[in-house]
Design brief:
By secondary structure, the protein is of the alpha/beta class. The protein has a single domain, classed as 2,3-Dihydroxybiphenyl 1,2-Dioxygenase, domain 1, CATH 3.10.180.10. Helices cover 21% and strands 31% of the residues. It contains three helices and eight strands, in the order βαβαβββαβββ. A hairpin with a 7-residue loop joins strand 6 and strand 7. The relative contact order is 0.21. InterPro entries: Glyas_Bleomycin-R_OHBP_Dase (IPR029068), VOC_core (IPR037523). This is Glyoxalase.
């Protein structure tokens, strides 16, 4: 049996008082359901979201927050054109990238300037 059996969650750092923006971006725009944080962790702030495959995306508060410009999560979508249209509706800027063509992907930033990637898969 393999020592590591998969990926459970990823955490994105955010500044204090990020919860309203996190819910608008990851909940409303990306349409991810919010999860209840365990009470012992809820006092720290942040928000957790569920991904369709059962994994989780955690937004965690860090006191010395600096946006991540290189390291990033790559999220999958089934229809990149629909994603780009939804981004425009929510006034979220996306940048198409063609370096891995025929793979289709875009880059964007969360409300705090962290880099995100969305790949059509």
């Amino acid at each position: 049996m393999a020592l590591i059996t998969g990926l459970d969650h990823i955490q994105i750092e955010a500044p204090a008082d990020c919860e309203v923006a996190a819910r608008a971006f990851f909940g409303d725009f990306l349409d991810l359901p919010e999860l209840d944080k365990p009470p012992v962790l809820a006092a720290r702030g942040g928000v957790w979201f569920s991904l369709p495959d059962g994994r989780q995306l955690h937004i965690g508060v860090t006191g010395d927050f600096v946006p991540r410009q290189k390291g990033h999560p790559a999220l999958r979508c089934g229809d990149l054109n629909a994603f780009v249209q939804r981004a425009a509706k929510f006034q979220v800027s996306v940048k198409a990238d063609f370096e891995l063509a025929p793979l289709r992907r875009v880059f964007l930033q969360d409300p705090w300037g962290n880099r995100l990637e969305v790949i059509e898969a």
